[in-house]
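User: What would this chain look like folded?
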Amino acid sequence: MRIRKAMPEDLDRVSEIYELIHDREEEGLTAIGWKRNVYPVKDTARLALERDDLFVLENDDAKVVASAIINKVQVPEYALAVWKHSAEDDEIMVLHTLCIDPAEQGKGYGRAFVSYYEEYARKNGCPELRMDTNAVNKAARAMYRKLGYEEVGIVPCVFNGISGVQLVCLEKYSG
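Assistant: Here's the prediction, encoded as structure tokens.
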């Protein structure tokens, strides 16, 4: 497997993964807290590609099976969380919109992406790691907990255009 910065030719595949997850959520097979045509959408990936912070994971067959956005952008809702570690903004790396093709789940790709994110943060001088997920996303919450992330609070909000979100804020300090 290989994780790399996304290229324009990856946009359709990343968007397809979003749609596959929306399908599963609408069928009641998963609970992520996303909403079709609201978040995430192809423009979510396109804007990240334009910012140069969209990453993809290719499996051993060179097929893109996962994506995430990695940057230093803290969403406004983070100001409402009680973080245990204070850091300057340029010392904080954030993982956004981690998603795995539902047909490829259970193969360690989520863990691999988080490991890559942590190494990327270290290389960029960011000891404070932050991320969020929807409270209904029990699978992600369990994985992050196993990987040493601590839930520091739940912020009720409208998030990425989705109302009624209970935004779980997570952190890990590697400094």
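The chain is about 30% helix and 30% strand. If you want, I can go into more detail on any region.
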